[in-house]
Amino acid sequence: MNNTNHSPVPHDRPPEISLYMVQLLNQTLVCTVDLRSQVRQACWNVKGNDFALLHPLFATLVTELAGYTDMVAERIVVLGGVVRGTARTAALQSRLPEYPDALVDGTDHVRALAERFAQYATALRDDITLATDVEDAGSAALYTDLSRRVDKQIWILEAHLHH
Questions:
Q1: Is 78 a member of any domain?
Q2: Does the pLDDT of residue 133 top 50, yes or no?
């Protein structure tokens, strides 16, 4: 078999659907990059009695979000798109609110993160519908998987608010 004549993997979806999904996925990517940086901000700055509990939790969330960025980026490439996931792009295009820089107390960090994760989860659920509407089952499945994972993270954050 001659490997010098590769042809792109044929897609059975119209190019405008792939372009639409690449744009949607890139929007998800910038929000994910932004959310990860906000959790990292909380991880670096948390103080107080809950430090020993929250620092490792926040570090775990950072790691999980890094995995989400890779999953979304991979889907963009599979659809033939260009991944747009730099910190600068995220700063310009994320729909999440800026993280408050005056937070120190663990509960305040958890509350701020829970709010941002909730907004992120809402966007993921909306994206499930949008991907389904254009019959992109692969992207809808990715969004569903991310949504389930983020719901669990919200549950964990909210549990810390009720201790």
A1: yes
A2: yes
Domain count, the chain: 1
Query: In Å, how far are 29, 80, 86, 128 from 15, measured between CA atoms?
Result: 21, 9, 25, 20
pLDDT at 18: 94
Look up the pTM and report it. Answer: 0.91
Rg (alpha carbons) of the chain, rounded to whole number = 18
- Alpha-carbon distance of 12 to 17, in angstroms, equals 10
Domain-embedded: residue 8? no
Determine the pLDDT at residue 163.
65
Q: The domain spanning residue 90 has which CATH number?
A: 1.20.1260.10
